[in-house]
Amino acid sequence: MRGLKGKRVLITGGASGIGAATAARFLEEGSAVCVLDRDGKARAEIQRQLPALAGAVDADVSNLKQVQAAFAEAIQMMGGVDVLVNNAGISIRHNFLDITPEEWDKVIAVNLTGVFYVAQTAARHMWERGSGVILQTASTNGVMGYPYYADYNATKAGVIELTKSMALELAPKIRVCAVAPGYVLTPMQRAEYTDAMLDEVNSKIPLRRHAKPEEIAALFAFLASDDAAYMTGQVYTIDGAETAGSLAGR
């Protein structure tokens, strides 16, 4: 895609799942890539799988000081950050009545507060330089009602509104968009479902399958490219037509 060669890309939650696939895609496009992830084993594995990475930085996105230190480290590794893929997130499958305050706080801290910390840190750097692209991982959970994920749903709705507000304030220097995947077959997703549950979900999706992480990565690459230079402030759904017919809640 046009304009990605030589771009410096930072990906949070970049050591597995969608983040790892996105790192691989940007490397294929000729970008310099640094991933940020708090999982040490996953960082070691992604560096083994993708030896061309500029680096893999340790940070908990819910801790502002760690975010700022990690961002400074990534800048030192690559010389700057042109593109942020703000992707780190967690989920806990629970009945609404059983969600504990501790679980609620944990999901909010990573999925919304962490997204804000990383986005603001990146935006300050990009604003001073005069350009940049910030891409955030939302979800169809942020626009549709899904049972058993009230805390996760709330955070993804927050990411969508944060994205729109950022795009208005940071234009024309910085473009900001969100990607809202539907069901994606990541390790986190697979761990939450039995085979029977997976088959049931697939039966509700018009394309009859989960997305591949590489398919989400391709959308991130396009949105970061020069081909998407007039695209900002929008949320791009990639869900196999799942939400077109409101199938998710049935």
Report on the architecture of this protein:
- This protein is an alpha/beta fold and 250 residues long.
- It has one domain: Rossmann fold (3-Layer(aba) Sandwich), CATH 3.40.50.
- Helix content is 46%, strand content 14%.
- The protein contains 8 helices and 7 strands; from the N terminus they run βαβαβαβαβαβαααβ.
- It has helices at 17-28, 40-49, 64-78, 101-129, 150-170, 187-191, 195-204, 213-224; strands at 8-12, 32-36, 55-57, 83-86, 132-137, 174-181, 235-238.
- A 7-stranded parallel beta sheet has the order 3-2-1-4-5-6-7, with helices on both faces.
- β5, α5 (150-170) and β6 form a beta-alpha-beta unit.
- α1 (17-28) crosses α8, α3 (64-78) packs parallel to α4 (101-129) and α4 packs parallel to α5 (150-170).
- The longest helix is centred in the middle third of the chain and has 29 residues, at 101-129.
- The N and C termini lie far apart (38 Å).
Please estimate the helix content: 40-55%
Report the mean per-residue pLDDT as an integer.
95
How would you classify the helix and strand content by structural class?
alpha/beta
Q: In CATH, what is the class?
A: Alpha Beta
Q: Using the alpha-carbon principal axes, give the shape.
A: globular
The fraction of residues assigned to DSSP E strands is 5-15%
Cα Rg? 17 Å
Oligomer: single chain
Which spans have pLDDT < 50 for at least 5 consecutive residues? none
CATH architecture: 3-Layer(aba) Sandwich
Give the number of domains: 1
CATH superfamily: NAD(P)-binding Rossmann-like Domain
Number of helices: 8
CATH fold call: Rossmann fold
Along the chain, the helix and strand elements come as EHEHEHEHEHEHHHE
Count the E strands: 7
